[in-house]
Structures are given as structure tokens and as C-alpha cells.
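F.,

This is the one I mentioned.
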């Protein structure tokens, strides 16, 4: 099987992002670019924050979705949502890359973490709308919620120039979270036939490739969502992944035809934005 890895940033990445033919797909690693206080930026850190607030059995303390499920089962869903709200209460200051991405003419931006950093960067614009994944325990039968740029809920999908898609939800504007085992099981049961993926995402991706920034694929959940969000997209696809991939990550990259860019995210951010990154 061919592994495509490069150690330079292709001109096609910057050009495609600038032209709106490549979709930024953000993960929790983007928070590493932010100065000052930051919310949890990986599953282990988030699990530690949640389990510091609510005691869970030791054997699941480091397993985020299982710990969240325990809190939901034994302390109520509202306790879990409140703990997530507290974990992401202190917003990160958007980095130069967040601001650069927010200014792009992107038809679609995907962000698979719970922080509000890119939403804050988008606040300078009004020509965008947000769609978030919804937990079936709170919104049974409704897979997504739409919001205008000012955070006001919309009763129907919005056809904005830029659609900002948060498949796992986010703290803002409405504390929507896919976080517990049952949240993800409900979505993964249907995601193969694309039911939870908004129609506008399915339509727009047909002409797009994806650039993964701050993402790891060393767990089943991020792989499953990336695979289904990318489905039937035009390509090409790139992932900034400086760390040597795990066996399952490499298999995923090969299976999806994703070119690995083996550079630190900060170096890529500087190349795209022209703004020097902190050492």
C-alpha cells in the first residue's frame, strides 16, 4: 500500500484554501496555537476535567465517552452538560490561523471539538451560519441544530456563503454536546447512510477537498466522523500530522487517499498566515 507523506507545504493547499476549493477540517490540536488560557485540548485532558468534578470508577476515568456516560446515567444529563459548559467556559483567544481561516471564502468549515475559538474568529463577519450535531437524548429525532451568526437559533437550514459545521456540538451558542457513549452510538448507527450529516454539507463537499488541521485519527470516533463527512467529496485531501501515524491512522490515511504533511502545525500556520508563531 502506498503511503503518501511530504515534508513541505504544497502550494496547492494555500491556493485551495484561499480559493474555497479546500475545506478546513479542524480538530482539538488547533488550540495549541492559541496564546493564554485554553480549554481542554484532547480527550484525556477533557476526561480529567469532567472526572475531577464528578467521581467515576477508576477503570473508566481516562475513557472520555464512558466517563461521560457514567455521569449521565448516575448524575443526570444536566450534570454532564453543566460539567462540559464549565470545561469550556474560558474561551481561547483565536490564533492567527483561526483568524486567517475565518476570513476565507470557504463554502464549508468543519470543526470537530467543543471549543468556540473559530466561532469567535468568525464574529467579524455576518455572512455565515452554524450547524451543530445534536444529542438524541435531548433532541430525539432531530440530528442537527442551525444558528445564525449572532447565535440565534434558526428553524430551518440556512444557505449562507460559509457554513460552519460542528458535528460534535459546542458550548456556544446552545450547549449542544455529543459526548457520552450513547450520544455517539445513536449517531454512528445512522451515519453510514448519512442521516446525521446536514444536506448542505453533503451538497457542498461534492466540489471540495479537505485539509485536516489539529486532528489525530488514532481513535475510532474521529476516523468514523471524518470518513463520513468526506464521503463523496471531490478531493484532494491533506492532513497536517507531524507525529508518526499509528498503524490505524496510516490505514485510514491510505484508505481515504489523504496526503500526510509531516510538519508541525505551528510551521504550517506561519506559512499560511505569514505570522511568526511563538517558539
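My design for it:
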Amino acid at each position: 500500500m502506498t503511503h503518501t507523506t511530504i515534508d513541505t507545504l504544497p502550494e496547492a493547499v494555500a491556493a485551495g484554501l484561499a480559493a474555497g476549493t479546500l475545506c478546513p477540517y479542524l480538530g482539538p490540536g488547533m488550540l495549541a496555537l492559541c496564546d493564554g488560557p485554553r480549554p481542554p485540548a484532547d480527550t484525556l485532558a477533557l476526561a480529567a476535567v469532567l472526572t475531577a468534578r464528578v467521581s467515576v470508577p477508576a477503570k473508566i476515568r481516562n475513557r472520555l465517552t464512558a466517563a461521560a456516560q457514567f455521569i449521565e446515567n448516575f448524575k443526570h444529563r444536566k450534570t454532564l452538560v453543566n460539567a462540559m459548559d464549565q470545561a469550556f467556559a474560558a474561551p481561547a483567544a483565536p490564533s492567527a490561523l483561526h483568524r486567517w481561516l475565518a476570513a476565507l471564502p470557504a463554502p464549508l468549515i468543519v470543526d470537530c471539538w467543543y471549543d468556540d475559538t473559530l466561532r469567535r474568529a468568525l464574529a467579524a463577519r455576518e455572512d455565515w451560519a452554524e450547524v451543530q450535531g445534536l444529542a438524541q437524548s435531548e433532541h430525539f429525532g432531530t440530528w442537527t441544530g442551525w444558528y445564525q451568526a449572532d447565535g440565534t437559533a434558526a428553524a430551518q437550514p440556512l444557505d449562507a456563503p460559509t457554513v460552519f459545521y460542528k458535528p460534535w456540538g459546542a458550548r456556544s451558542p446552545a450547549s449542544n454536546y455529543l459526548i457520552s457513549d450513547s450520544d455517539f452510538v445513536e449517531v454512528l448507527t445512522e451515519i453510514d447512510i448519512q442521516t446525521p450529516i446536514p444536506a448542505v454539507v453533503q451538497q457542498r463537499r461534492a466540489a471540495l477537498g479537505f485539509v485536516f488541521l489539529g486532528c489525530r485519527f488514532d481513535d475510532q470516533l474521529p476516523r468514523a466522523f471524518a470518513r463520513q463527512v468526506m464521503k463523496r467529496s471531490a478531493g484532494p485531501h491533506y492532513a497536517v500530522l507531524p507525529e508518526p501515524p499509528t498503524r490505524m491512522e496510516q490505514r485510514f490515511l491510505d484508505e481515504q487517499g489523504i496526503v500526510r504533511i509531516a510538519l508541525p502545525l505551528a510551521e504550517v500556520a506561519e506559512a499560511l498566515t505569514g505570522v511568526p508563531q511563538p517558539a
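The chain has two domains: 5-34+94-274, 44-88.

Talk soon.
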